[in-house]
Specification:
The chain is an alpha/beta fold. It has 15 helices and 14 strands. The chain starts with 7 loop residues before the first helix and ends in a 16-residue tail after the last strand.
């Protein structure tokens, strides 16, 4: 049985840092799971914390519970902070009171709620990997409705004309998400604020769809090649029925950027998974989702609006074009010289969803909200959760495109003009592709 009460010195450390912790602490599933594994939090406590609507309130509720959870609660909390890349907060708790002489008296824990922050400022020690995730939770969070299960009747009426999708896990999923770029090697590639929201959303939804998900963040072009080559060679593909590859970065037509500013051509990616190069996936569906621009133009209706100040727009929309700080003039001067052009090769059993269109004259920019993640990933997540139980993946992509088409966001650099976006997908599937979530046939 858990001993009551935390050590007094640990309580004082939490009280001293309560205000900072409530502003900077990211209370996510990984941190809560770590505390549950140490038997610091019960399941009902974890549910009550995660039920709070904002990151600020989740932090407050956790800090209110910890002093009552026994003498091990403090050390377990510090360990959870290290595991979730919040080492700076762990170090803050370990500081002696003498270092606080210049600080104002600390706030005490109170039962009333804290005032929510109105600024997006983050202390210098705040880990970048959690910056946008926190704001996503404080704003309109990505939908977390559980994936709806497929019914036995639907499976039995559709399994004959569909790809086999009964293995557990359904397949392997690889997510490569480039958020922060080398300021020396890629001077014109801005951080993709909100990108970390996307890779967490994808990890969760494909895990719920019974995929074994691997997430890799901030890889160079060569690092991405190596990661994909290793993924293709995994022997687990032999016993699973499909695979998923998600690539999130800045991009141009036919290629995406590594953190070193070098390009990885999508043609090479698709070739790596074809029947010749990845025999373990022959006749199995291979799903690709590309969250990146295919150019730097943006569909703004009547006129094109660009400018360096676009991140100040009211809805925090940004583009995933490679060079976000440059305008149209530079784009026209550079032209299309040196840009790789590619169409999805006619290889079997592949479907690829792109966040933006490839036009005949221009290639469009993908829109990303710095708080909630990209439009494409938001809508893909929602559609998969609500409709994968009874909808062909190609039809899901049509739904995603329709939802994105209906969106309006402020065009970068102006508060008066709005822009629209459209995604698209390319398919060489040979059968119907239903994911049949949470259904296992009884033999």
């Amino acid at each position: 049985m858990l001993e009551c009460g935390m050590l007094e010195q640990d309580k004082r450390a939490l009280r001293r840092r309560s205000a900072i912790l409530c502003k900077q602490l990211v209370v996510d599933e990984l941190l809560i799971q770590s505390l549950q594994a140490d038997e610091i939090l019960t399941e009902s406590m974890a549910e009550s914390i995660m039920a709070e609507q904002t990151s600020h309130k989740r932090s407050w509720r956790l800090l209110l519970l910890l002093p009552k959870r026994g003498p091990r609660a403090f050390s377990s909390f510090c360990s959870a902070l290290r595991e979730t890349e919040q080492q700076h907060l762990c170090e803050l708790l370990a500081q002696s009171p003498e270092k606080d002489s210049r600080e104002t008296p600390v706030e005490r824990f109170v039962e009333s709620s804290y005032r929510l922050p109105t600024q997006e400022g983050i202390a210098a020690k705040r880990a970048r990997t959690h910056e946008s995730m926190e704001f996503s939770l404080d704003a309109d969070s990505p939908i977390n409705t559980p994936v709806l299960p497929c019914t036995p009747d639907f499976y039995l009426s559709h399994c004959q004309q569909s790809y086999r999708m009964t293995s557990s896990p359904r397949g392997l999923a690889l997510v490569i998400s480039n958020v922060t770029f080398d300021p020396c090697a890629a001077t014109d590639l801005d951080p993709r604020k909100g990108g970390e929201v996307d890779d967490e959303v994808l990890r969760k939804v494909f895990t719920e769809l019974d995929y074994s998900v691997t997430v890799n963040r901030d890889l160079t072009a060569q690092g991405m090649r190596t990661c994909i080559e290793n993924f293709c060679r995994r022997s687990d593909h032999r016993t699973t029925d499909s695979c998923v590859v998600c690539l999130l970065s800045h991009g141009v037509e036919g290629a995406i950027y590594g953190t070193d500013g070098q390009l990885l051509q999508l043609d090479w990616v698709f070739e790596s998974f074809d029947n010749a190069h990845c025999p373990l996936l022959q006749n199995k569906p291979k799903m690709f989702f590309i969250q990146a621009c295919r150019g730097e133009e943006m569909d703004c209706g009547v006129e094109q609006i660009d400018g360096p100040a676009r991140t100040c727009s009211p809805s925090c929309e940004q583009r995933d074009a490679g060079r976000e700080g440059q305008g149209d003039a530079t784009s026209r001067q550079r032209g299309d010289l040196g840009r790789p052009r590619i169409k999805l090769p006619q290889r079997s059993d592949m479907i690829c969803g792109f966040a933006s269109l490839k036009g005949q004259r221009i290639c469009t920019a993908a829109m990303r909200n710095t708080k909630r993640g990209s439009w494409f990933i938001q809508e893909l997540n929602t559609a998969l959760r609500l409709h994968s139980r009874d909808t062909h993946l190609a039809d899901i992509m049509v739904q995603v495109n329709g939802r994105i088409k209906e969106r309006e966001g402020y065009a970068p650099g102006t508060a008066h003009h709005r822009c629209k976006e459209m995604s698209e997908f390319t398919s060489s599937l040979c059968k119907d592709l239903y994911l049949f979530p949470k259904y296992q046939p009884q033999y």
